[in-house]
Structures are given as structure tokens and as C-alpha cells.
């Protein structure tokens, strides 16, 4: 864990992430996420084809790929919001629907309504698991004191406790994303799933966010999908590439075949070639092969 | 003034205004934060089909309109859920078709020529006491439902995808929300008219949203603002001999513009 002064958060050091009250991953050796031969299509359009993916406990994985490559579909399959047309999805060794309470989800803040009458504290409280069915008698408009304190704890973890009574739509993009992380943390997840965490966030906000994720990854398995390769490269421990098919590397290295899956083959004179070489060097690998 | 308030029709109008304000403030806040004003407009116009059907078949207007509108709202909810890019088109079809259906049925009803204007603006000053009791019952049911599912409605309104991931039965509650909107619309439409329903579902929550930091506060302030607009609109209507519904809408619109101006000035200061 690295503490440092953060210019875009509150202007002071990030708090050290406390040793988690998160549930430890049950059992050793079993992957946190395991996809085998997964296929998914929307109507006739195939989005994922024969995808295998294994995420180990304690991993901080970036799943990168172009827009429309199936990243968000992958997240929804892991959350159990979608059912694969073929293959199996296991989360924490079981069906995603049954392990949903142990998974924290952080969607893109840009997709959330820009103007909504809700405080930061209330947003975090929304992350608490819903108990019972539609007619459960445990429904009551207020929150218990214990839940409110838990939400404040989650806000402290992301260094946003001071802004707990502020309206959510009054925050910057980076601050909103931190609050959404707190909303995911409040349910004590063993796995955190991020969908494009850096979209609509300025560069300083991205740095702050990745510092936070890096701290959190000490206690929680994190998987984030992103098309932002540069940001994704900074703190991750492993990488996978998805563009209908999925290639998973051994570590955080981008192999030529991974880059080819994202960008396709191209001429060495193509301006994109320089960019790809730059990306490749950031991930600590040589450039992709070019078809000359 | 006491003489005016002593008249039963005026007491009924005030009570109807109070009950309509409460329902519209609470349900209208859900409509506004879910960006479903167009959907509510569609539901309100479709209610006209239920009115036409009741007259054509010789059935009681209120139950027939409630049944028809709730059914139409459920169809709209099913057709639009998760397909926001097509929802406006589907609502537009239901909007026009429901109203046309009502008009044709009224044309076909032998010996009956209803005054369309009375359904557009309604007449708050002509509400019978029996309708007040019915409105009271519906208000109590609507408030109980909102209290019971408040956290779920807040969650799905703020971020539907995340709400699903935390186990909120989003599709069912979305349908429940449409049914509540339909019931509110039918309840208010017969006393206040089609246009006042849309105005009360929209203007007070839009105003309240400017000054509140929580959905329940928006609902409360919207109900109070709605009541203020109803009372002041009624007073103007009584003294200037104007249509009550149109007067209320004029006051509410002016109130919103003033509130928006005040908020903008304060933000700029």
C-alpha cells in the first residue's frame, strides 16, 4: 500500500485501507472467476465466442478491448445479469446468481443520471444487499444506524467521508467514481467488478482512482474492463484482451496476438503502428507483428 | 372569505386539491427522476380510451378507466423496459391510439355528446364528496406502496443496472411504478382534467428537485408546492371567474420559472 498526497481528492493523504472486514475468499486454489467455453449473442449478433477466463484470488486484472468487443457483456455474465448461450460461468466456485452478494459492481458513473436529488451518503447506502423478495416485510424506508455507520466506513476508505452530505451531482467525475466504489464496498465484497472506471475522468482523477484500486487490491480481487489501455497499465497484476474472442496472458504483458486481437493486422507504415508500439512498450513487451 | 369556504363545493375543491397534490407530488417525483414525463403523458391520454369505452358499454366510468389505463401502462412498461431507444415511439403510438379509441367510441355511443374540454381541463369546483373518499383511499394505498418500496424505488431510479445487481426486482417494480402512475392519473384526471394531471405530475417535482438533496424531500416539497399552486390557482379562478385547472397550471408555471430564476441567481452569486 502506498500513501501519498492526492491533489484531486481532498488535498491530503489517502487513508490507509484498513485490514478488511471483507469475507476472505473461501478455500484456496479455486478461481474467483472461471469462464469455460462461454458464448453470448444479442439476437443474431455474436458478442462473445468460446471464451475461457480464469481470475485467481488476489488478482487485479484489466480486461481490455475495443468498444463493442464484449467487455460489458462479460461483466454482466459474471454478475449473473445475463445468461450465456453456451458454456459455464462460475464465480467464487458457484453460480453467479448465488454468489451475487459477494460481488461489488462499479458501473460507469457517466451512465448515471446527471441530476438526481440524492446525497453521497444515500448513494453508498444503496449498495447494501436487498434482503427478501418483492413483498418482504423487512422493507422500511429508513436505514438502521449500523448500516449508516457502515456506509460512512466505506466512504472513509475512499477518502470521501467529508463530502457525505453533499448532493451526488455536485461532485467531480473522479469523486463520483470514488463514491460508486464506496457503494460497492459497503456490502463487504470478495470481488470488485469495474466497468470502464476511467471514462469521463480527468488525468489526475484517474491517478487517484488507480491509487485507490491498488490499495484495495491488497484485500479484494479486482477485475476491471476498460478500453483505456494506458490507464489500465499502471497498477494491474494481469491482463486479458477481449474482442469477441478472449486471450488471457500469463501476467501483465501484452503479447503480439493480444494486440492483434484488439487492433487487427496492419501495415508498418500505418500511423496506428506507432501507437501500438507505444502501448506495447508501456505493458513491457515488444510490438505486434505487422503484415507487410 | 369564510362564506366562500363554507360552501360545500369549495370545501370539496380544497380537499380534492390537497389529495391530488399529495398523490401528484409523490408519484410525480418518481416520474420526473425516472425521466418518464412522456410516459406519464401517454398514460394520461390513454385514459381517455377507458372513458370512451365506459360510455360506449354503459359501464361506470371510474373502474373502467382505471382498468383500461393500468392495462395500457403495463403494455407501455413491458414494451419500453430495457429498450429506451424505442420507448418514445411505443408511447407515442399508445398516446394517440388510446385517445383516438376513446373519441371513436364516444362518436359511436348513441345519443351522447361529451364535452371534450371538460376532460382536458376538468373542473375542480365540481368534485362530489363521494370522489373525495375514493381519492383518500387511493392516496393511502399509493403512499403505503411508496413507503414500503421507497429504498427500491430510489435504487432503481438512480441506477437501474446496479439495482438489479443488488437483488432489487427491477422489472416488477418498474411495472408497479407504471401502475401507480396510471392510478394517480385516473384519480386526478376526472377532477382536474388531462392537462392539469400532466402539469401537477411534472411542475412541482421539477421545482422541488432544485432545492432538495433527497428523493423523499423532493416528494414532500413537491406535494406542498402542488398544494400551494392548487390553492392559489383556485383563488384566482374564483375571483377572476377563470377555468380552475388552467389557472392552477398558470400559477405553477410562473412559480417554476421564479424558482428556477432564483436558483440560477443563487448559483451565479
Q: Might you state the CATH topology name of the domain at 33-115 and 188-252 in chain A?
A: Rossmann fold
Architecture per CATH nomenclature, i.e. the level-2 architecture of chain B: Orthogonal Bundle
CATH class category of chain B: Mainly Alpha
Assign the CATH architecture of the domain at 33-115 and 188-252 in chain A: 3-Layer(aba) Sandwich
Order of helices and strands of chain A: EEEHEHEHHHEHEHEEHH
Subunit organisation of the chains: heterodimer
What would CATH call the homologous superfamily of chain B?
Answer: ABC transporter involved in vitamin B12 uptake, BtuC
Rg of chain B, Å, rounded: 19 Å
Brief sketch in words of this structure:
Chain A has 292 residues and is an alpha/beta fold. Chain A has 9 helices and 9 strands. Chain B has a single domain, classed as ABC transporter involved in vitamin B12 uptake, BtuC (Orthogonal Bundle), CATH 1.10.3470.
Key phrases:
heterodimer; A: 292 residues; alpha/beta; Rossmann fold; six-stranded mixed sheet; three-stranded antiparallel sheet; 9 helices; disordered N terminus; disordered C terminus; B: 269 residues; mainly alpha; ABC transporter involved in vitamin B12 uptake, BtuC
Q: How would you explain this protein's 3D organization?
A:
The complex is a heterodimer of chains A (292) and B (269). Chain A has helices at 71-79, 96-99, 120-125, 145-157, 173-185, 203-216, 229-232, 256-263, 271-282; strands at residues 33-42, 45-55, 60-64, 86-91, 103-106, 191-195, 221-226, 238-243, 245-248. In chain A, helix 4 packs across helix 5 (173-185) and helix 5 packs parallel to helix 6. Chain A has 292 residues and is an alpha/beta fold. With 269 residues, chain B is an all-alpha fold. Chain B has one domain (2-268): ABC transporter involved in vitamin B12 uptake, BtuC. Helices cover 86% and strands 0% of the residues of chain B. Chain B has helices at residues 2-6, 8-33, 37-57, 61-80, 84-108, 116-121, 129-148, 150-158, 160-165, 170-192, 194-211, 215-240, 244-268. In chain B, helix 2 (8-33) runs parallel beside helix 7, helix 2 (8-33) runs antiparallel to helix 10 (170-192) and helix 3 packs antiparallel against helix 11. At the A-B interface, loops of A face helix 8, helix 9 and helix 12 of B.
